[in-house]
Every structure is written in C-alpha cells, then in structure tokens.
Q: What sequence folds into this?
C-alpha cells in the first residue's frame, strides 16, 4: 500500500501539526526526529537500544555510503537494508546527492548526472537520477529521496538558479524511473522530492511550487542548515512550508540543534534528521533536559549524578557524569556508546514532548519557555 | 565476612574441580572466566550487557590504570569502583605489577618498590607493596593481588631467582600492610599472593610452597602465558596447582585461548582472566562453538547466518556475519561492540559448560572432543 499521512492536531498559535505517517513497516508519529544510520548502523548504538531504549520510529540510511559499501549486490542478497541490519521499522534513505558534493572527490556535474571518485578507494562512479532510483530500490527504504544538487551557502544567484533547474529536471527523471520500476522486497517505497533554490526567495518559491506540482506522497526541504544563520533557515523553512501541500508530510533535511528542531516544527515541519546528536555525543557533548554539557570538562570529575535523571532511561540514568568523564578521558568506547544513546533518547523525547504540547494546545508557550533551558551550557 | 570457597565436585579423571566462591558482592561459580575491565570498563560493553547478556560472575580492574586515571581521590569520593562503574557483583584487581613492567616507561626496580613514568603523561610515580595495598583499598575490589615482579620469558636463572625472592619479600610487606588497614567501604577484601619463578621447576616449587605458607584466602599463578609454549605453561600450571592448597581457589593469571582455558581447568585451576576475547573481538576475531572466525574475511560477505546460532544470546544471533563484516570493513564501532559481547558470552559459556561436565563426570572426554572444534579456523 502507499504511504499514508493523517494530521491529528493543528496547533492554534503556530503552524505546528501532530500527525501520523503509516508505512508498510509501521507507523511514525510526527513531528519526528530520525536518527542517522549512515552505513546501515546508527553509530555506536545497538539495534536493540535503538528500538527499546531510544524507541526511534524511523532511521536514515545513506545511499552514497551503502552503494559504495557493502554495495547493492550484497544488499539485494540480504533482502534489502531492513533484513541486512535487522531494523524492522521504517527506513528513509537520502539520495546521495549531498554526500557526492561533500565527501566524494573530483566530482563533475553534467546534465546526465555526476561522476565522482569514492572517498574510500578512489574508484570512479556515475550517479544519474535513474541510477540513484535503482540503488534505492536495491536498498529498499520505505521513503526514498530524489537525486538533487545541494548548492553550498552562499551561492550566487545564477549558480543557485541553474542548480535548482537541474534538480527539477533530475526530479522528472527520478519520477519516471521510479514509476516504471517496482519495489524489490514487496513493500511500498514513497519518493519525496526536494525543494532547493539556496537563499533566494523567488527561487525557493518556484522550487516549492514545482516540487508540490509532482504530487508525491511527501516533500522535503533541502539545502538549508548548510552554514546560513538560523533566522535565515527559519525564513526559508516557513516560505517552503507555506507552499508545500498541507496534507503531506514535510521533511526538513539535516536539522539540527534542539532549538532548531522546535522552531522548525513551529513552522510546519513534520520530519527532521541530523548527525548532531550522535556526532556530538562522540565528542562528549550531551543534550539534556537541563541544558548542554561537555562531559570532558573537569567540573564533572567528582559529580556522581547521572547525565539526566529527569529524562530517564538506562544510558541517561545508570552511569554517573564522573564515570563518563573518566570514560572520555580514557578514550574508552563506552563513552561514545552511552552519550550516543543518551542524546538520541533526548532528541526523541524532545519531539514527543513537542507532539504532546501540540495536542494539548500549548506548544508555543512550552517551546518559548524551554528553549533557553535546553540551549544553556551547564 | 571473609571469602569462602567450597568444592562441589571433583572430576575423577583430571584435577578439575567445580566450586563456589562467596564474596560480599555475591557468588562466583568456578571454574570461572573473568572479563578484563582495565580502566573500570570492559571495553565496548555496557554494564547491563555484562550482567544480563554475558552474565559475568566477576570482572577485573587494573590497579595501574585506575591509579593513574581517574585516580584514588575520585574512586574514594565515588565510594569505590563498584559504585563508580555501577558493577555490583564481585571485582578483582591486579596489583599493577604486570602493567608497570609492560606499559610504564623508564621503570627502576629497587628493594623499596618500582619507580616508573606514566604511559599517559610521563609523570613519575613510585609503587611499593604498601602503596599498592593502599591503592587497592581505595579501589575496593573483593579480591586484590599482591604486588609482584613478573619476569619476561625467557629469563635467566639468576634473574628469575632474584626476582622471585623479591616478590616473596614484597608479599610479606603486602600482607603486613593489608592486615594493619581496614576496608574503606564495609566489604571484605581478600588478598591473593602470586607464585612466580619463571620456567624453572625448583623456583616454581619454592615459590608455590612459600605462597601457600602465607595461608591467604586464595592463591594465584603469575608469570605464565608470557610467550612460552603452551605445553610448558601446562607443565608449570600443574606443578603449582599440585603444591597450592586444595581447599582454596587457584587463579591462573592472563590465560588464554579456549584450549588453554580448558587444559588449565583440567590441571586444577579455578579462575582465569585474559584480554583475548575483547582484544580479538575488536580485530574481527570471534570464538564460536564451531571454531574461530575472522569476520573481516571476504568469505562472510554474503553469509547471512548469525555468528553463532548454537551459542544463543542477542549479539551472537541478532546480527548476520555479512552485516558484521560490513561493520568491520566500514570501521563502525558496532563491529567491536557486537564481537566483544559475543566473545565474552562464548567464554562464559565455555567455563559453564566445563563446570557442568565436571559435575557430570565426563569433563575429560568432553574437553578432548571439543578442543579441536573450538580451535579450528572457519
């Protein structure tokens, strides 16, 4: 069956909504944060923890990484990514566009697609819209992304416009390819096109309208959170959300801090993902209900309280700050393991709290009251 | 209360015995393998996994590492290592002797003790038998080890003899210091002296007799598994076990492979520890009920069986060999995490099987039949 989206509640004071996405691998309560599992694993987190402790509704995989390693042949033999990594809830894969531009070497963009060299072994590859759809068929995610070009910030107007138009032409080819192929593993795959247009209002407007016109099962906003100021991000998120259809999920790609998450939800975003909680965790930075802590700091040396007693859960309450500081100082793997589970538990708590406050009708007051607490340095 | 040891069964065909050690932190079924938690953590393993999945009866901590980092002040403030790392079952700490000789820099051995420089920051330290007892009081393990010199293999006779005699003199000082101090956290700490004497029968005999004469609550055999052939290790284990008292636990330090574990149990050893299962795990080597696998090998690329269906348990059955190979090739932390839990689950399974076969009276046949399977390369 297709992807289904129902809006359950709309916040009266902001554009936030509480909804539910239904996929063949289960339901996603929105707004949702999606942990990033680049190479088929959310770094340093057991699948069991992701399900039972963090209770993620959906995780991401990266097409670029999975294509290079383990490759589509292994993924197909496994029966797709769900079978390969044992995650039986929904998965979303990006299209590899962003990684081709940020990680790969000697890339060349042509009308046909992008040639690049692998960051792993220097081998040469070509990504076309058609090829990227085929790869995502092999991976078998429930939600797959159109192949786009993500221009850097800042980009000049002409570059941004040409790039956006290329992304639109590529989208048509993605749609054509997807619609002439079938899923490999018996479950539906929904294609989300991506709004681009850099930080130009007329381009973003054009792009959002164009993307909406494809009438796919959900829509994404790309090319934000790439270095622009937060206020500019919010301005463009709002512009896009106001154009993208109300009755379909809106996915803001690669965002962000706890404050970014809440502000974008207020603008009508339903889905977000970011490497921040896991990447920061590996560097000792944890987000808590009381604020942000750097666990490597000497001030935690003899603090025997858990990371976050209020949040609850094993990782956040079993180990003391003192012990975790010791783990970080001693370069022990457990440090990143605990902090990663904690940060993801926090991010999922955050969007679930947001959802409840949308339902309760006090989302705006709650958001404005909690952001200064969540963003303070402890 | 003191440490209690009861022998439940003796194998009629070997010198193996099945027993039970009782400490203030609970019981240890012997023979037992003790996972090594160098810096207060068994590398890449959550405490919850150690308890619920691996079901370790007792873990090790390293005095040298814990003294350097986090240091005795933090450990005392925490209320000892059990409180610090959240492990509420028995803990054993080595004396740091081995690490001072293998890790520390510019060490100088004198009658008083050993001066050395930290491998972390080059700072200068002095370990005396008295200081090492005090540090182990601060750590608060249930079983603590005498400060010894562990000579390398091979050592010449004169060096080995002088070293052994120094170890014996240091033992008297350890005993004196321990007996004039009290535990800091209300639970009993049992001191195990260590037999040395390198690979000389007369020295090992002298040392075992001397160590036995102290009549402590358990005894250890050190200085083996340091590069000598396995047959030589077994010869000296047997020599020591035959002299050390029957009614006290015998701990063979730093051993070893699955075959080493079983052969030494057959000679009368009750306790063993080794970094092998966790260190090998991080390099992709796993021990299974069918043999040894290098998960990095291409042959597992499209093998979607779990590591070890027979063994059971989450780590050993949830993830496929193919997925784990991908995790190792992609340098994902999950690779070492899963393999570490698996290998320790296997080691604990191994000693529990051994115990059951001792009780059943068919330990020797079982051991001889299973060793070739366990040690074969898959």
A:
């Amino acid at each position: 069956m297709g992807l289904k989206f129902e809006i359950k509640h709309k916040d009266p004071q902001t554009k936030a909504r509480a909804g539910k996405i239904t996929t063949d691998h289960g339901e996603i309560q929105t707004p949702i944060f999606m942990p990033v599992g680049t190479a088929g694993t959310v770094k340093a987190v057991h699948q069991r923890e992701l399900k039972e402790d963090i209770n993620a509704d959906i995780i991401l995989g990266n097409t670029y990484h999975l294509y290079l390693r383990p490759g589509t042949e292994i993924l197909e033999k496994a029966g797709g990514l769900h079978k390969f990594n044992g995650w039986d809830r929904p998965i979303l894969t990006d299209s590899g566009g962003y990684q081709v531009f940020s990680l790969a070497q000697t890339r060349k963009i042509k009308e046909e697609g992008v040639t690049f060299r692998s960051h792993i072994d220097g081998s040469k590859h070509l990504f076309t819209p058609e090829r990227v759809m085929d790869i995502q068929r092999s991976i078998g995610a429930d939600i797959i992304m159109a192949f786009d070009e993500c221009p850097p910030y800042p980009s000049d107007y002409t570059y941004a416009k040409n790039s956006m138009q290329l992304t639109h032409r590529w989208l048509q080819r993605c749609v054509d390819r997807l619609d002439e192929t079938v899923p490999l593993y018996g479950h539906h795959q929904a294609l989300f096109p991506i709004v681009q247009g850099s930080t130009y209002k007329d381009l973003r407007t054009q792009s959002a309208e164009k993307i909406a016109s494809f009438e796919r099962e959900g829509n994404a906003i790309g090319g934000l959170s790439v270095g622009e100021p937060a206020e500019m991000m919010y301005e463009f998120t709002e512009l896009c959300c106001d154009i993208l259809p109300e009755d379909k999920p809106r996915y803001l790609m690669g965002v962000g801090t706890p404050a970014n998450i809440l502000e974008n939800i207020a603008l009508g975003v339903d889905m977000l993902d970011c490497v921040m909680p896991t990447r920061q965790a590996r560097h000792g930075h944890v987000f808590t209900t009381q604020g942000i802590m750097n666990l490597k700091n000497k001030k935690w040396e003899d603090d025997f309280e858990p990371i976050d007693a209020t949040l609850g859960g094993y990782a956040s309450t079993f180990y003391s700050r003192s012990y975790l500081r010791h783990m970080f100082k001693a370069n022990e793997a457990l440090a990143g393991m605990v902090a990663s589970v904690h940060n993801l538990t926090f991010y999922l708590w955050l969007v679930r709290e947001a959802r409840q406050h949308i339902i309760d009708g006090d989302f705006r007051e709650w958001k404005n009251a909690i952001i200064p607490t969540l963003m303070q340095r402890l």
The mean pLDDT of chain B is 97.
